[in-house]
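STRUCTURE:
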């Protein structure tokens, strides 16, 4: 396919709307032959560090372009903002935020800042999110934290950290250890959802501990550039903080830099969904077409 596209009239662009790791692994082949790449596929940019380096080296060799804005935050300008900060000489010191629309919805619903009615148990909130289509078909693919870890890996690399892989730093899974061994099948999903209420007490205790301190619990990712530490998991936040105040399934990403001081540059909005992801991919494609003219 790469040879075919390279031989096409004009400058070809591969738009990869899959999550296929094999196709992502072939990006260097396309790029070396002058075929630019536009994609929301995180696999090529968050897997092995050698592939990350090969992708951008191949792009330089083939005079091709790589745009992957929608790998983090769907249509939100997260990657472009970070690249602009780095390219203009700002010193990024920390990146922190809620990077999963699914987990944002779960915790905004389970542990709201204020509510006139008691929040539903954790298992019911997960079931509600699944019914609404906010989770993957297997909610464990959201609850294991790996999707957030892949996004953090991409941002950390852009910020200058050579993160080996998304499992090279601490990731707090929300899957109870007793249920981790259930198969990734339709029956396994059914068993997981049926047994999840057994662990509502654990999540309620986490929420209540935060409430006793006047805080709420949220699932966040953080990158400390100075100490080269990346972490994904639960943290407590003051009720008047920007992260605590999120609504629905919104994402929020805060960039702490030398230029912006103690008040971070914040990107906030819908970080998942077909419409906004399509917008992000289309915007990248338009940028590539304009640059290739």
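SEQUENCE:
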């Amino acid at each position: 396919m790469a040879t075919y596209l390279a031989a096409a009239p004009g400058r070809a662009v591969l738009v990869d709307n899959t999550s296929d790791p094999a196709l992502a692994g072939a990006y260097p082949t396309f790029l070396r032959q002058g075929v630019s790449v536009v994609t929301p596929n995180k696999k090529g940019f968050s897997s092995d560090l050698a592939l990350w380096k090969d992708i951008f080296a191949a792009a330089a060799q083939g005079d091709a372009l790589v745009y992957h804005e929608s790998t983090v935050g769907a249509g939100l300008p997260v990657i472009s903002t970070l690249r602009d900060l780095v390219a203009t000489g700002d010193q990024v010191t920390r990146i922190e935020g809620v990077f999963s629309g699914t987990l944002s919805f779960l915790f905004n619903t389970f542990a709201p800042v204020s509510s006139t009615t008691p929040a539903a148990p954790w298992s019911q909130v997960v079931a509600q999110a699944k019914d609404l289509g906010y989770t993957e078909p297997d909610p464990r693919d959201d609850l294991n934290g790996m999707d957030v870890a892949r996004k953090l890996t991409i941002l950390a690399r852009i910020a200058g950290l050579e993160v080996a892989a998304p499992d090279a730093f601490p990731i707090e899974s929300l899957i109870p250890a007793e249920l981790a061994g259930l198969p990734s099948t339709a029956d396994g999903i059914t068993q997981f959802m049926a047994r999840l209420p057994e662990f509502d007490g654990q999540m309620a205790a986490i929420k209540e501990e935060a409430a006793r301190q006047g805080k709420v619990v949220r699932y966040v990712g953080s990158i400390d550039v100075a100490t080269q530490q990346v972490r994904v998991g639960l943290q407590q936040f003051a009720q008047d903080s920007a992260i605590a105040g999120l609504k629905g399934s919104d994402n929020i990403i805060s960039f702490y830099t030398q230029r912006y001081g103690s008040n971070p540059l914040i990107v906030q909005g819908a970080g998942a969904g077909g419409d906004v992801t399509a917008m992000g991919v289309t915007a990248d494609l338009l940028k590539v077409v304009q640059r290739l003219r």
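REMARK: The beta strands are 13-15, 36-38, 66-67, 92-98, 215-224, 229-238, 250-257, 265-270.
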